Amino acid sequence: MSGKTSGGFLERTIQGAVSLLQETVSVENVAARNGFLQHRDPRFKCLSAAALLIAVLMSRNLAELSVLYAAVLCMALLSAIGLFFFLKRTLLFVPVFSLFIVVPAIFSGVTPGEPLASFKVLLWNLTITRQGVDSAIVFFMRVLDSVSFAVLLVLTTRQHVLLKTLRVFRVPQLFVMTMGMTYRYIFLFLDIIQKMLIAIKSRVGFVASTRDGRKIVTANMAGLWLRSYRLHSQVYDAMVARGFSGEAFVLDEFHARVPDVVILLAALMALIGTLWLNLFFR
Amino acid sequence: MAQSVFSLKDVSYSYPGGIPALENLTLDFNQGERAAIIGANGTGKSTMLTLLDALIFANSGIVSAWGNQLTEKTMRDAGRQRDFRSRVGFVFQNPDVQLFCPTVREDIVFGPLQLGVDHAEIRRRLEALANRIRISHLLDRSPHQLSLGEKKKAAIASVLIMEPEVLLLDEPTAGLDPQTMRDIIDVIDQAHKNGKTVVMATHDLHIVEEIADVVHVFGGNKNVIRSGTAEEILADTEFLQQNNLVHIHVHRHLGVAHAHLHEHGHEHPHHRDISGFR
Ligand SMILES: Nc1ncnc2c1ncn2[C@@H]1O[C@H](COP(=O)(O)OP(=O)(O)OP(=O)(O)O)[C@@H](O)[C@H]1O
Ligand SMILES: [Mg+2]
Question: B236: buried, middle or exposed (CB in 10 Å: 19+, 13-18, 0-12)?
Fold first, then answer.
């Protein structure tokens, strides 16, 4: 086993963590922009997203799914999110996996029906069916819609606000607070790790290639655990010093306005419409 | 005789692992007093402040606040705990410890919320305080997006907003730029004028005279080696030098580098020399 691989692995892991940090910060910038959805009450946003998700999952109607997708793209534009940025985050990543499910479904072996095209691959005769293609498109649109709703919600809502919204839906305060603190301290640790890496590099050069470098990293990892333990008890002290006694209280800052209600109503109408379409036009 | 706020009698404390941090310390802090704690690194300044804030408890000796002894047992009483926390505010040396919420705003309002202050009142105090120390633009940021000085200001705000009777400050001005340092000194000064007791550990000797009436110097013996008025102690350069508190200051004037003791709190004459030569 060569030392290079393990050193490279360490460094890549650390760099990965650091780029996660930068990535997340850039997402936070979107949430801080001055756009339509950024100004919406997160409670209404979450509820609307939930209603739309249910509608999408129940819909078998391509026209409806397309309208919803167009609506998502308009919302993204209204919220100061570039179309390319948004498409990159949705189209490129998540729906790729759905192709693996969708592609087999278009063939007669999986979805029997009216043949559209037939061809021969090696020994197999493959037939694509109309029903197969239709259901594949609907499936793909459903995934695309749901992913887009979720991404839009996350992009336009700051992490801590999203967390706070959990409280409205009766998730215990202590749980929400712990998640918030975890989120906060992940950054602190990434920061410490990054500084540590720079400090090591300044002393021994590239960590990846030297035995000493790896030793120092290992020793520092142990130190990091101790530091995390000490930090943990100090943070607890800091909470107690400001009156924390096991139950945390927070300031409620959510204000619902007319557009919030309008959005929720629109989402509910989409949901009811879907139910209605499914019941009467099968 | 002024009323005593904190008193330490023959107090010793060792951290788990056995290293003694304070040995047989006896010290008093009076109502409305401004005390500065100075001393080299590792002489127990932070440890004493943590003891005063009843976050750790003496191994031997007595620490008391307003005449009541601070022990693990007495602080277990919820009413007592709450009363004590609302009267004593502590700014930690490391601001990362103190800013544990996702945003600066939530961090600042954390204390008064736990103590049950009325929400409208909290909002009013938050706005006034944020304006005064110029952090309004930072309120919705996450602490990890702040510089060290900005974090320090946020940490100080998170304690000032509780309007405690006593402020325990562990190096509140370390690493701050001159304007920010001025803001912080002004805020502390204002708090003192409003009758608050201030106990502050610091390495910034040049502000000691301005912010403290009494100075306690901690030494390598894990105890106070000298107490006195700010003028008296700052004037004794030889003593300060012996205790790692004054450094030799090298700088240039009239194009020549030269070294001399860095005496703080006095007008530096060189600028006048230069203008005289022009
Ligand atoms: N959590 C801890 N665990 C073990 N030892 C500690 C801990 N904190 C401090 N010490 C030790 O206790 C002694 C006093 O530390 P303290 O932090 O009170 O010093 P200080 O005067 O505040 O120093 P500085 O000027 O560097 O802030 C030091 O010798 C230090 O090594
Ligand atoms: Mg200290």
Answer: middle
